[in-house]
Design goal:
The protein is of the alpha+beta class and 207 residues long. The protein folds into 2 domains: 76 residues, Glutaredoxin; 113 residues, Glutathione S-transferase Yfyf (Class Pi), Chain A, domain 2 (Up-down Bundle), CATH 1.20.1050.10. It contains 8 helices and 4 strands. The chain has a 4-stranded mixed β-sheet with strand order 2-1-3-4, covered by helices on one side.
């Protein structure tokens, strides 16, 4: 049985949980992270020296980094419909997963911590304004891409890339600040909510 180490509220753990739902893959999950078992525990550090969730144990195989985990699960457990083997189709999926992990993540980090998490360490007004501008800019890129691609980020069909991107879209709608109207993103948000995995782990009231 696949074991997932990480608390269910973590956005990166939710990537893995949603992927398992798409694959119909059973798993056991243990709560690790803030508020639960400490990731500084030597037993956890032996699995991931970065002290971060998620970590998976698939038999004697241990893996960390959420995007690497979901790529592995799709490749290992019949997820070619999510992560195609054909190099150009796979590269398009990888491109948008990497964009989410770098450009999109970086743009929303400060604004999310300030406005959704109310972090005392994120009270700089100029930094907040810059983050809101950057986040809006990346979401406008996503809006144009979704309109161009025909409904999902890597093309017309749902793919592995929609899992990290979809969770970031959920975060966009749950963070309170003035936002432009992005019709393709709004339609995408509703379209993803038709998927059981997204209802369970994406659009579930948790940012």
């Amino acid at each position: 049985m696949l074991k997932i180490l990480g608390k269910a509220s973590s956005i990166n753990v939710r990537k893995v949980l949603w992927t398992c739902a798409e694959l119909g893959l059973p798993f056991e999950r243990e709560d690790w992270g803030s508020g639960f078992q400490s990731t500084d525990d030597p037993a956890f550090l032996a699995l991931n020296p970065n002290a971060m969730v998620p970590v998976i144990q698939d038999g004697d195989f241990v893996l960390w980094e959420s995007n690497s985990i979901i790529r592995y699960l799709a490749a290992q457990y019949g997820g070619q419909h999510l992560y195609p083997a054909e190099p150009r189709l796979r590269a398009r999926v990888d491109q948008w997963m990497d964009w989410q992990a770098t450009d999109l993540n970086r743009s929303w980090s400060y604004a999310f911590m300030a406005l959704a998490r109310l972090s005392p360490a994120h009270r700089d007004g100029d930094a907040l304004a810059a983050s809101c501008r950057d986040w809006t800019h990346t979401m406008e890129i996503l809006d144009r891409r979704l309109e161009q691609a025909g409904g999902h980020v890597a093309g017309p069909a749902f793919s592995l890339a929609d899992i990290p991107v979809g969770l970031s879209v959920n975060r966009w709608f749950h963070t309170p600040f003035d936002k432009p109207r992005l019709p393709a993103v709004a339609a995408y948000y509703d379209r993803l909510a038709e998927r059981e995995g997204y209802r369970l782990y994406g659009r579930n009231g948790t940012a």
